[in-house]
Design a protein that fits this description.
This protein is mostly helical. The protein has two domains: 196 residues, Four Helix Bundle (Hemerythrin (Met), subunit A), CATH 1.20.120; 267 residues, Helix Hairpins. Helix 4 packs antiparallel against helix 6 and helix 8 packs antiparallel against helix 9. The two termini are 48 Å apart.
Length: 562
């Protein structure tokens, strides 16, 4: 069997890769979401850091502007605004705290500390300036906040501000760019994972269609052909070690086994139809086919027994009919002899009429002739008894044959029942069992033909029995007539005695004797006719028995040739 990858293994591999790809895609989605969140957070932090840095710087610049404005204008509002910022608003402190909460580097913290130190170093100058304004020394106040020391400190603070903002922006932008690259990388990985999943699913669909769906459709069509009894339909699929391949191999094996069983049954039935009952039934029937094998053996055994019994009975019938024909021929010969004796007796009576003088001598001759006729009549009566006995034997043999034919009909009926059971089993098997229903119908048809043949033989036997009964009736009639002849012969003998004793009554006695002889002649003719008919019936029965023997000898039975 050709090696092949199992469809289940291939599907499992593809589905496993698809599942792993989906899991990887889910991880990528989570990472993408996380990176995107971090990117949004980085942008938000960049904004917050820039905002709070400007707040810190603007707070410092606001103090400078307000103290200079107060020194230049001496307006109380600027003074109040300055101390409101220092004591209430505290934008510098809030900005620094917010930046520290978001997260700043040590270098950035150092810049803040340096700017705070420079700003704090300006506080004494600013306080002296505001004091001078309150004392009315405006110019001195202006000199404090517009002087070289104050301006240099402001310049340093502004430079640090620019440096601090640049550092924040570079750091934040670097973080954002790094996160954007990570997001782009995850996005590319997601596209690749989706492509892999799509390709695997496409391969899965193609493999499922080519290696599973198409073979399954072919298998379905093939099973439909098998269910219709068509075992020779083309089955293009080849077997291999995959699941579909093993299923294909099972179907090939099923077709081979079914063909083997059908060929075996067809060969056996063909041999039986040709009359060969001496054949073996194969021993390789398996499973639910074993009862068919047992039924075929039982049918062969029953037919062999029945046909052997019919053959034996046919030989017996042939022998008995041959004997009956011989007896009938003997009876016919006796009837001819009896007719001859009657003619001789009639001639003697004519001589008695012509020669009255020799009445006594002729009467003695007539008595002797009558005695002879009596012997013949007794012999005929005995033959008729033998013929009736033979008829009874034939009738009994025919009855036995009828019983054997009844046995054949019972066997045919049992065979028909077995065929019906096979049809029921085929119906239970569903679509896959319809092919066996055809075999069961053929077996039932053979059983019906056997029953019809047995019925025909029964009709032939019944016709033979009717002929035998008719021959028996004729024999009975002949026996009765012979009895009458015997009585007539006795009366003739008595008449001859009386003729010898009394010649005077000779004329009257001769008339009675002539009348009796006419009756005897009629009876003898009837007896001869009956004997001929009995011989004809016996010959017909013999021919029927020989035909039955020939019919039975057409079958090749166990223990003898055909």
């Amino acid at each position: 069997m050709k090696k092949a990858v199992n469809q289940s293994v291939l599907t499992l591999i593809l589905n496993g890769v698809a599942i792993l790809s989906m899991l990887f895609l889910m991880v990528l989605l989570l990472n993408y979401r996380k990176a995107n969140s971090e990117l949004n957070l980085a942008n938000q932090n960049r904004y917050e850091l820039t905002y709070n840095a400007n707040r810190f710087m603007n707070g410092s610049a606001y103090l400078t502007n307000e103290v200079r404005a107060f020194a230049a204008t001496a307006e109380q509002t600027h003074y109040d605004n300055y101390w409101n910022e220092v004591n209430q608003l505290k934008n510098r402190e809030i900005g620094v705290a917010a930046m520290q909460e978001i997260g700043i580097t040590q270098e950035e913290q150092a810049m803040i500390d340096e700017m705070a130190s420079l700003s704090n170093a300006l506080v004494p100058l600013e306080e002296e300036s505001m004091t001078k304004v309150q004392e009315g020394k405006i110019q001195e106040a202006i000199d404090y906040v517009y002087g070289e020391e104050y301006s240099e400190s402001i310049a340093k603070i502004n430079a640090l501000k620019e440096q601090f903002l640049d550092a924040l922006d570079v750091r934040s932008l670097s973080r954002i760019e790094l996160l954007e690259k990570e997001v782009d990388k995850i996005r590319v990985q997601m596209i690749i994972a989706l492509s892999v999943v799509g390709i695997i699913q496409l391969l899965n669909i193609i493999i499922t269609r080519v290696q599973i769906l198409r073979p399954v459709l072919v298998v379905r069509n093939q099973m439909g052909e098998i269910s219709q009894g068509n075992l020779s339909a083309e089955f293009p699929l080849e077997s291999n070690t995959s699941e579909i391949g093993m299923l294909v191999e099972s179907i090939h094996e099923t077709k081979r086994e079914l063909k083997k069983y059908i060929h075996d049954i067809d060969a056996i039935l063909a041999q039986m139809a040709d009359g060969n009952m001496d054949m073996p039934v194969g021993n390789d029937y398996r499973g639910e086919f074993r009862p068919i094998q047992d039924a075929m053996r039982q049918i062969l055994d029953s037919l062999n027994d029945a046909l052997s019994q019919i053959n034996l009975t046919a030989e017996q019938v042939s022998e008995q009919s041959r004997k009956m024909a011989s007896d009938a021929q003997t009876l016919s010969s006796g009837a001819v002899q009896q007719a001859s004796a009657v003619e001789e007796l009639s001639s003697s009576i004519q001589e008695i009429s012509i020669q009255v003088e020799r009445t006594s001598e002729d009467a003695n001759n007539a008595r002797e002739a009558s005695g002879t006729a009596m012997g013949y009549l007794k012999e005929c009566d005995q033959k008729m008894g033998d013929l009736m006995s033979a008829m009874e034997d034939i009738s009994k043999a025919s009855s036995r044959i009828g019983g054997i034919i009844k046995t054949i009909e019972d066997i045919a009926f049992q065979t028909n029942i077995l065929a019906l059971n096979a049809s029921v089993e085929a119906a239970r098997a569903g679509e896959a069992g319809k092919g066996f229903a055809v075999v069961a119908d053929e077996v039932r048809s053979l059983a019906n033909k056997s029953s019809e043949s047995a019925h025909s033989i029964t009709e032939m036997i019944e016709d033979s029995i009717k002929l035998v009964e008719y021959g028996t009736s004729l024999s009975t009639d002949a026996s009765n007539v012979l009895g009458t002849v015997v009585v007539g012969a006795k009366e003739a003998t008595s008449l001859m005695v009386r003729i010898a004793e009394s010649a005077m009554l000779q004329s009257e006695s001769l008339k009675q004797l002539t009348l009796g002889m006419e009756q005897i002649s009629e009876v003898v003719q009837m007896n001869a006719t009956t004997a001929e008919q009995s011989a004809l019936s016996a010959g017909q029965l013999y021919n029927e028995a020989e035909e039955l023997k020939v019919s039975v000898h057409q079958f090749k039975l166990r223990g003898r040739g055909k």
